[in-house]
Each structure stands twice: as C-alpha cells, then as structure tokens.
Design brief:
The complex is a heterodimer. Chain A is an alpha+beta fold. Chain A contains 20 helices and 21 strands. The longest helix of chain A has 28 residues, at 255-282. Chain B has a three-stranded parallel sheet, covered by helices on one side. Classes of the chains: A alpha+beta, B mainly alpha. Chain A: This is Chemotaxis protein CheA.
C-alpha cells in the first residue's frame, strides 16, 4: 500500500473514530437510543471495509469481530450497558494502533472482544428471534471484479445476518465471445430471517452498486414488530442513498495542498495589487480594464480559498466530549458537557493549535474544579457537575470560553502561594483579576504541590504560552463555590484580510477593515495632544484615543491635520490617531519572525502593490492602549459603567 | 486434449478466451486447466462458467480443473462448487 493511500485511510479512520465516539457518547446518555447504536455500527462497518481494502488485516478483522458482537445490540438481542460503552471506547482507542499491529494490540483486541462477548451473552436468549424467513437476491453491478470485489466476504456477512440456502444464479454468465471478465454476471439467492431489515442489508452493500431484490416478509400475524425502529419513511430518507450523495458533494484533500493553495492565492493577490498599480500609472485603458477583471477574479478566488480553510468549532469540540466522558469514568464524577457555537467557523490552523490548551483547561476543570457529588450536594448544588464550552465571533476575534460550576479558585491560597514564590510581595495590593491570572505564571505550574492550590496550576502556563503564540489573550474569572470561567480571545488568523492602509510619519501601516467602526477628522484643538484630553465625543460616546505616533515611538509629535479611526473589539471602542488614510488594500498577512515577537504593537506584515512593506497593527494591543487611557482618566465606577 | 491457461490478470483473459473459443469450436479441447494465483478467484470461477457455457453451446462437454485450493474454497463459499472438477490428490493437493 502506498503512503498516499495510507494517509488517506488514516484521515478517514480519524473521522470514523470520531463518528463512533460521538455515537457512543449519545448512547452513554440513553442505552436504548437505536440511532446511536446504528451510528456506531455504521462507523465500525466502514472502518472494517476501508481497512480491508487497504490490506490492514488485523484492523479489519478486529472491526469485523467487534461489529459482529455489536450487531446483537443493534438487533435488540442484548442490552447496552455501562460496560459495553467502556469496552467500545477501548475499542475506539485501539483502532489507530491496529494500523501497526503488535503482540500488545493482539492482547488488547482479545481482551476487548472477550469482554464484549461476555456482555452480549450475559442476556442471551432475551431477544430470541423468529424462525420466519424471507427471500433475498442480489447481483453486483459494474466492473466490480476489477475493483477487487469479493462476493465470498459479502456472503459471509449475509450468513452472519442469518442467511441460509444460498444459491448462485449463473444463468446470466455469457459465453467466451461475449465475456467481459471484469463484470460480475453471477447473482445469488438466499433466505434471510424475517427480522433482518433493509438498513442492515444496506450496510452489507455499503461499498457496492448492487441490484437487490427483497422477497416479501411472511404475513404471519405472530411476526414481532420492531418498535425501536423509526417509521419506514424516516429510515428510508436517512439511510440508503446518503453515502452516495455525500460522495458526490465532497472530496478529501490533504491539508498541505490546502495550505499551498492559500499561499499561492496570497501571492496572486500581491501580484494583482502590483498589476493594478502599474495599470494605474500607465493610464492605458486596456490594461486598466484587464487589471480590474483580474482583481475581481483574484478576490473571488481569495474568498473561495479562505472559506475552504474554515472548519466548524464542533469538529474540535467532539474530542472534548470524549475526554469528559473518559474523565467521568476515571474520576467517578458525573458531569454534563455542553458545547455552544458548534457552527462557529475557525481557521483550521487555529483549531489545531487550540486543542492542547483546551484539553488542559477541561482536564483541570474535571480534576480540580468539579467537586465530588457528595460535596456538591452538601453545598446545595446539583450532584451532576457542568462544563460548558462556547465559541463565537466578536468583531475580529474568536472568543472561546470554558465555564464550570465547580468550587472556583481559592484567592487566599493563590495569594499565599504567589508571596511564597516571590511573585508578589507580602504588602503588595493586588486586584482579584490579576491574582487569578497568576495561575498562568510558569512558577505556578512547576511544582506538583500547586495542584493542591485549588487545582488551577498544572499546565496552565502552557495554555497562556500557546494563546500568546496565537496573539490572543487568556482571562480567568472565578467565584468561590460557584465556578470558574476561562476566556480565550483570539484574533482571526485568516491569511488574507481586507486592510485599511494608513500613514504615520511617512511609513505605511494597515489595520483590518473589519474592526473599523468609523473615521472622523480629529478636531484642530486636539492636533498637538496632551494626555489629559485624549478623549473625543463621537456622537455622545466618549471614545478614548491613542496617537499612533506615540504608540510607535515616532518623534516629533505631529501638529498638522490628523484623522481619528474608531475601532471596536470585544465591545470596546478605541480611537487611533493617524497622519493620513491612504485607502483599502488586500492584506496578505505574513508572520513576523521570532526576533520580532516582543514588538506587541505589530501582528504581522504585508507587501503592497508598489512592492513596499506595510506593518499590520495589532488590534488587541490598540484596544488595550485605549483601555489604559480610559483607566487613567476615569474612576473605576465610570469605567465599569 | 487439455489446454492449460496461464493468465495472470483480467487483461490476459480476453486473449485466452478468444483462443479457447476457437479451440472449443474446432473440438480440439476437452479439458481446461485454470491457472493458480489468479488475483480474483471469483473472476476465475466466472471464466470457468463462461467456458462451460461456450462448450455447451457447441454441444460439447468440457472438464475444468484448477490446482489452486483458494479457488475451490471461494467456489464452495459462493455456492459454485460444481463448476470445477474436484481436487483429486496427487500434485494438486497441498
């Protein structure tokens, strides 16, 4: 098997494993949920088929054996219980390891299958079926033999569904002169138990185009109904044709190809800007028309390429559902996990980098935040804890929040620890906000005892470091006895954004247009600027402003006409004073080198149409600078108001 | 006479089929030995069925053998046991 095929399979396996886990998580809440059982079964079945096609024998054999036992739950012959869920999660974890099988994976496989067999057979006989049968015939369509179809395996699966009296129909096989050797002319007839439904048969033929003929079920009045199944209309619309429709609607593309596409679109946008500039200078109407057309095309291409990179937050959140379920079992805690904003789209790079910090936060909430049930009930809380994770776009940021209803942070112990560590002096006054944010200090996570400090220490510096690396911000709010809320504020990391090009001290800078609220002329009496008057009344709203010349350290102060750009993010408005506005431009974000990571005012750079470089201002830094102006002038009560 | 086929994949079946069809029409073949190691046992069994159909169309009987046990196994699993003459000891038994 080529590496390319294996990589595609591994990606498919990851997705199917997530589907399997998601079904198990639903099943864990309701052991009788037939749709979850069916969902888990379908994922297993696809893993088995794909694994077999890739020659991963041990994986496909394990999936097959597990699926066979799991089918008993699907048919209602055995009940699902907590042990079945546990074993199924173990099987889920084992599947990726079976790509490289060993003696250890063989032992794990055997233990899981043995455990599941015990669960299945514990209630054997409870759902004894009927002896009634129906006839069934099938014939594979197309050049399936060339594709490696093996009817023997299909017949084996049908036997496992209870097929008997299997007979081959060879009447359609032509003579040698008319034979197409890659087409399968042979059909098969058989008898099946009457309780085998169409959905079960469809899963057998998941990978094949096939002519099927279902004989009518016996009309015996004693035939048991299948109450757990949805109505015929519902199942018909949801199952049989769905895989084919999905196959037509999407294709699998490697992430490296996607990154390459976006990079090239970025370069195209830069080249297009250069072309537009040259066209403008040449004043040639034909060249101008062509440049305009290419501009439109490149913008369309940019939007399409960027939308391909976006991934719903839900794809990340499903991993945490599994994490919480596992920790519930490990820690013997009962916790509900809620995800809000699954549909919120984030750049795939951001999704990948957010996974680890969120695991740290959720693990800490589970381990140290949520109290044991007896303590919760003693404190008048519900025995079941709650963790909520949400994601939403606000302005140019993505806000991800993890909130629990656990015991909250112990401010006194954090304070004592900070003094002990020398982070705070004993007589130093410190706000609660700053105190809580000390849990992200590396010193708080370097010693194991810190986990006893209400548990908010271990690994939290990793969270801060990662979020800092994404040019985001992490904030923690907590109320003793009620819970903790950790908020991650992250800039959108789209590689190409619409930028507003400005000039300060003869240098060009750009800021994302998405955060610009409005642009006003700075009143003449504010040109020179004094700290005490860095506020402007914009239609009744007092907006603090910062002078970019000052922020960027550009002497001397400029006293000519200036412009105020009001930007907003996270509900805060801040004005920035610039010398001049040049106009809008496509901004292809180029990351700064690690040497520039201490320059907080700048979040990146871009190349302009004339070939010069413009630095991209960091909106979060500007908002913070404005906040400092606000705090310097207004009382705390006024600020909070 | 017995004609031994040496096809290794589906691409070899069509030319073999043309040769075999001509031989059956001329009545020079009464026995065919299928190859071992063919990638699709069911494909080979279908080829055997096609040979038999052609022979019957000529009003002749043909014995079809295959020394590959895997093909016999698949024939049994697929309800096609009667297509091939059974393996009968000697070199063909593994």
């Amino acid at each position: 098997m080529s590496n390319e095929v294996l990589l595609i399979f591994l990606e498919e396996l990851r997705e199917l494993k997530e589907q399997f886990d998601t079904s198990l998580l639903s099943l864990r809440k309701d052991f009788t949920d037939q749709s979850s059982i069916d969902g888990a079964f379908r994922a297993l079945h696809t893993i088995k088929g794909s694994g077999a096609m890739c020659g991963l024998t041990q994986l496909s054999e394990f999936a097959h054996a597990f699926e066979t036992l799991f089918d008993e739950f699907r048919k209602g012959n055995a009940p699902v219980n907590q042990e079945v869920i546990r074993l199924s999660f173990e099987a889920s974890d084992l599947l990726p390891d079976l790509v490289n099988p060993s003696d250890i994976t063989a032992a794990r496989s055997a233990a899981i299958l043995s455990g599941l067999a015990n669960s299945v057979h514990a209630d054997e006989g409870a759902g004894a079926g009927t002896n009634l049968t129906k006839t069934f015939s099938f014939r594979l369509k197309g050049k399936v033999l060339e594709l490696g179809a093996n009817p023997a395996l299909i017949l084996q699966e049908l036997r496992e569904l209870g097929a008997t009296e299997i007979e081959a129909d060879t009447s359609a096989v032509p003579g040698l002169d008319d034979l197409d050797p890659e087409t399968c002319y042979i059909g098969w007839h058989m008898k099946l138990p009457a309780d085998v439904d169409e959905a079960a048969l469809n899963t057998v033929f998941l990978f094949f185009d096939v002519d099927k003929d279902y004989g009518s079920a016996p009309a015996a009045s004693g035939t048991p109904a299948q109450p757990a199944r949805p109505p015929a209309g519902a199942s018909a619309s949801s199952h049989p044709k769905a895989p084919a429709a999905q196959a037509e609607a999407s294709i699998r593309v490697g992430t490296s190809k996607l990154d390459s596409l976006v990079d090239q679109v970025g370069e195209l946008v830069i080249a297009e800007a250069r072309l537009s500039e040259l066209a403008r200078l040449s004043k040639d109407p034909n060249l101008l028309a062509l440049a305009e057309q290419i501009n439109r095309l490149s913008l369309g291409l940019r939007d399409t390429a960027m939308s391909i990179r976006m991934v719903p937050f839900g794809t990340l959140a499903s991993r945490f559902e599994r994490l919480v379920a596992d920790l519930c079992m490990t820690l013997s805690k009962d916790v509900t996990f809620e995800v809000i904003g699954r549909e919120t789209e984030l750049d795939k790079t951001m999704i990948e980098k957010l996974a680890d910090p969120l695991v740290h936060i959720i693990r800490n909430s589970m381990d140290h935040g949520i109290e044991p049930a007896e303590i919760r009930t003693a404190n008048g809380k519900k025995a079941t804890g709650s963790i909520q994770i949400s994601a939403e776009h606000i302005g140019s940021e993505v806000i991800v929040t993890v909130k629990d209803d656990g015991k909250g942070l112990d401010a006194d112990r954090i304070h004592a620890k900070a003094i002990e560590k020398g982070i705070l002096s004993p007589d130093e006054a410190v706000s609660q906000d700053r105190l809580f944010n000390l849990i992200f200090e590396p010193a708080f996570s370097t010693q194991s005892q810190v986990s006893e400090l209400s548990g908010r220490g271990v690994g939290m510096d990793v969270v801060k470091k990662t979020i800092d690396g994404l040019r985001g911000k992490v904030d923690v709010q907590s109320t003793a006895g009620k819970g903790t809320e950790i908020t991650l504020r992250l800039p959108l990391t789209l590689a190409i954004v619409e930028g507003l090009l400005i000039e300060v001290d003869h240098e060009k800078y750009t800021i994302p247009v998405s955060i610009v609220n409005e642009i006003v002329d700075l009143p003449a009496d504010k040109y020179a600027g004094t700290t005490s008057s860095d506020f402007l009344n914009v239609r009744g709203d007092f907006v603090p402003f910062v002078r970019l010349r000052k922020v960027l350290g550009c002497p001397p102060l400029f006293t000519g006409p200036q412009v105020l750009i009001v930007i907003s993010a996270s509900g805060e408005h801040v004005g920035i004073v610039v010398d001049r506005i040049i106009g809008k431009s496509q901004t292809v974000i180029k990351q700064m080198s690690p040497l520039h990571e201490d320059i907080t005012q700048i979040s990146g750079a871009t190349i302009l149409g004339d070939g010069t470089v413009a630095l991209i201002l960091d909106p979060i830094h500007l908002i913070e600078a404005g906040r400092e102006v606000r705090h310097a002038i207004m009382s705390p009560e006024e600020v909070s108001a | 006479m017995t004609l031994s086929l040496h096809c290794e994949g589906f691409q070899d079946i069509v030319p073999e089929a043309q040769t075999l069809s001509a031989s059956l029409k001329s009545g020079t073949v009464d026995s065919v030995e299928l190859p071992t190691g063919f990638p699709s046992p069911i494909g080979l069994l279908q080829f055997a069925l096609s040979i038999r159909a052609s022979a019957e169309a000529q009003g002749r009987a043909v014995t079809i053998t295959c020394p590959d046990p895997e093909v016999h196994k698949v024939a049994q699993e697929c309800g096609l046991s009667g297509v091939l003459a059974p393996l009968t000891g000697g070199d063909h038994v593994q």
